[in-house]
Prior knowledge:
Shape: globular
Bound molecules: copper (II) ion
Number of strands: 20
Strand content: 35-45%
Distance between the termini: 45 Å
CATH class of the largest domain: Mainly Beta
Largest sheet: 6 strands, antiparallel
CATH topology of the largest domain: Immunoglobulin-like
Order of helices and strands: HEEEEEEEEEEEEEEEEEEEE
Helix content: under 10%
Oligomer: single chain
Structural class: mainly beta
Mean pLDDT: 78
Amino acid sequence: MRSTTHRPGLRGAGTTAATPFQRRRAHRALGLAAAAVLALTLSGCGEGMNSSADPALQSESPEEDSMDGMDMGDDMGDMDHGDAQGDGHMHSHETEGDGLSASLRGLTLGEVETNATSESGGELSFRIVKENGTTATEFVRDQGKYVHAYLVSEDLSTYHHVHPKAAAGNWVVNVPPLPAGRVHLVTNFVAVDAEGEYRALTLGTDFNIAGEATAKPLPKPAPEVQVDGYTVTLGEAASVGAEAKLNLTVTKGGRPVTFEPYLEAWAHTSAFAAGTQAISHLHPAQEWKPDATPPEVLTFVWTPSAAGDYRFFVEFMAEGELHRAEFTRTVSN
Ligand SMILES: [Cu+2]
């Protein structure tokens, strides 16, 4: 796999195999209204965030320019938590949006390009564009990263969580081979809009990978799954509008494992709705802080806004490695 080089000319040279797209399904627009209604409010993002003058908060810092942007299964090397602890923004910002809209609050996820195919990995790039047409370049690190990006296939059988790096607002990340067909890209970030306001947003769009999509059925709900020698259990989902507390336990040989922090949380869960690919990204109620004692049980609090099947991608760190457990959960009316 090529390294991420952040060449501004990515789109120019060497991308003859790129699949250009900006396609957005028209019916996604219908989801916009729903997303706006269900959106969480921004929580005090203006307070204590005097970022524009602070180079540490800029996305262009060269120390961000490294090859470790990709987290896939056990391939984790992206653990630069160090400077996140210095900037005073370790809390997670409540995000607005469920990834079904590419635009919210004057910021748009656009210029999505990739030269990855179903056979080979490549680079994925995109920009966050302001209402005035300029590229957003001021980002605040959140959960250890400036931008979290999630890629899922339409059938939710494929999930990747990657962390792009930017040069002049052009976010680039190495991605593995991607499934043929429609791929849904979700980006999660805190950025400054054209008015200088901080926006914690979850924006999403689709693109196509050439080839014939082969949809797999969603696996049946199971109370526990085995992954990397661990037994992982996740609680049941509730009904629409009701708060569910989904407990997560991880054991090995019958003993609880010690959770290790990953991206400033004890675990991360991306829950995608089957069909729409609406995302809820959840963190445990047990907040991670430096020197905190690892809890034995983690609790994801989630109030689903729509009935149907969901695929939960639970990412946790144990014994120095990142692991991912996947669950299907059904939300009833
Ligand atoms: Cu997270």
